[in-house]
C-alpha cells in the first residue's frame, strides 16, 4: 500500500513528485538507528499501522452518526515549535507570529478529529543555523539529506531526553527560511517527528504568502495522513493565499487514522 505525502506547494505552484511509503528510510531525530534496518522496520510498521487504521476507519464509517457522542473526550497532540535564526543570529519569525497557525491547527483538529494541541514550547534557537537548515530541500531530497546526515543541526536541537514511551511524543514544527522549489512546508510523514514550515507563512504583512493552514497540513502528514483531492480538506496539497487557501475539513476516515497515531495521547 502506498500513500503520497509531502508535496506542498506555494501559490500557483505545482506539486513536486510525491514519494511512496515504501521508499521511506529516514529515522526520527535522535533515534540513531541504522538506516537500512530502520527502513525495513518502518516499512512493515507503516503497513501494519495503515492496516490497523483501515480497520478503525471501516468501523467508524459504518457507525451511525447518532452513535457518536456529541461531546466525545479529546485526544491530545503535543506540539513543539523551533524557530531558527539566520546567519546573523536574527530569528526568522516570532512566537506571536506563529500563534495563529497553531490556533488554526488546534481548531481544525479539534473540530474534525477531537484532537486538541498541547504546545510544549515555542523556542527560538539563537545560534545561527547553517544554510542546510535555513534553506532545506523538500520531499524526497529532504529525506536523502536526512539519511546523509545533512540535518545534523536540526537533529542536535531536536534531541531531548529519552521518552518513557513513544506514545505521546511531540511533533516539532521547525520554522526555516526558504524551502527549495515552490514548497512552503514539508513532512517526512510518520518516519520523522518533525516537520518544516517556511517563515513567510507566518508573516501577516505578506498576504501572498501568509497561510495559517500549512502548519496544520504538515502536522497531518506527520500523523500519517496522505493528500486528499478535495480543496476543502485540510490535506489538499495546494494552498494559494490570499484568495485560494485550502480548507480545514477532515473526513471520518481521517479522524480514525489520526486516532491510532502514536503521537496522540488518548482520552483518560
Ligand atoms: Zn502535503
Brief account:
By secondary structure, the protein is α/β, with parallel strands linked by helices. The protein has 7 helices and 5 strands; from the N terminus they run αβαβαααβββαα.
Give me the CATH fold name.
Answer: Collagenase (Catalytic Domain)
- What overall geometry do the principal axes of the alpha carbons give? globular
Bound molecules: zinc ion
- Binned, the helix content reads 25-40%
How far is the first residue's CA from the last residue's CA? Answer: 32 Å
Q: What's the CATH class, please?
A: Alpha Beta
Q: Helix- and strand-based class?
A: alpha/beta
| Rg of Cα set | 17 Å
- Tell me the CATH architecture: 3-Layer(aba) Sandwich
The biggest sheet, with number of strands, parallel, antiparallel or mixed sense and barrel status, is: 5 strands, mixed
Tell me the series of helices and strands, N- to C-terminal: HEHEHHHEEEHH
- Helix count, DSSP H or I runs of 4 or more residues: 7
Number of strands: 5
Structure characterization notes:
With 268 residues, this protein is α/β, with parallel strands linked by helices. The protein is 32% helix and 15% strand. It is built from 7 helices and 5 strands. It has helices at 35-62, 95-113, 131-134, 139-147, 152-158, 213-222, 252-259; strands at 75-85, 115-128, 171-176, 185-187, 194-198. It has a 5-stranded mixed beta sheet, with helices on both faces. Helix 1 (35-62) packs across helix 7 (252-259) and helix 2 (95-113) crosses helix 6 (213-222). The chain is globular. The model is unreliable at 1-7 and 10-71 (pLDDT under 50). The structure holds zinc ion. Zinc ion binds at residues 6-8, 217, 221, 227, 237.
Amino acid at each position: 500500500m502506498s500513500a503520497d505525502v509531502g508535496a506542498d506547494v506555494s501559490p500557483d505552484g505545482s506539486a513536486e513528485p510525491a514519494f511512496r511509503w515504501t521508499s521511506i528510510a529516514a529515522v526520527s531525530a535522535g533515534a540513531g538507528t541504522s538506516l537500512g534496518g530502520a527502513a525495513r522496520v518502518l516499512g512493515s510498521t507503516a503497513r501494519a499501522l495503515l492496516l490497523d487504521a483501515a480497520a478503525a476507519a471501516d468501523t467508524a464509517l459504518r457507525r451511525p452518526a447518532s452513535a457518536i457522542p456529541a461531546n466525545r473526550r479529546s485526544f491530545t497532540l503535543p506540539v513543539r515549535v523551533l524557530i531558527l535564526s539566520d546567519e546573523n543570529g536574527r530569528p526568522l519569525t516570532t512566537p506571536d507570529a506563529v500563534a495563529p497557525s497553531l490556533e488554526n491547527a488546534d481548531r481544525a483538529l479539534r473540530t474534525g478529529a477531537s484532537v486538541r494541541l498541547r504546545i510544549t514550547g515555542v523556542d527560538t534557537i539563537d545560534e545561527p543555523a547553517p544554510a542546510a537548515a535555513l534553506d532545506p530541500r523538500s520531499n524526497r531530497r529532504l529525506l536523502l539529506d536526512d539519511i546523509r546526515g545533512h540535518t545534523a543541526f536540526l537533529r542536535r536541537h531536536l534531541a531531548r531526553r529519552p521518552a518513557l514511551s513513544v506514545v505521546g511524543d511531540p511533533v516539532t514544527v521547525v520554522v526555516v527560511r526558504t524551502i527549495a522549489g515552490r514548497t512552503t512546508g514539508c513532512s517526512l510523514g510518520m518516519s520523522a517527528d518533525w516537520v518544516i514550515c517556511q517563515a513567510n507563512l507566518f508573516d501577516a504583512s505578506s498576504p501572498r504568502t501568509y497561510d495559517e493552514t500549512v502548519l496544520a497540513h504538515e502536522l497531518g502528514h506527520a500523523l500519517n495522513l496522505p493528500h486528499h483531492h478535495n480543496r476543502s480538506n485540510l490535506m489538499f496539497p495546494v494552498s494559494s493565499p490570499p484568495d485560494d487557501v485550502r480548507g480545514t475539513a477532515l473526513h471520518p476516515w481521517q479522524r480514525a487514522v489520526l486516532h491510532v497515531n502514536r503521537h496522540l495521547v488518548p482520552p483518560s
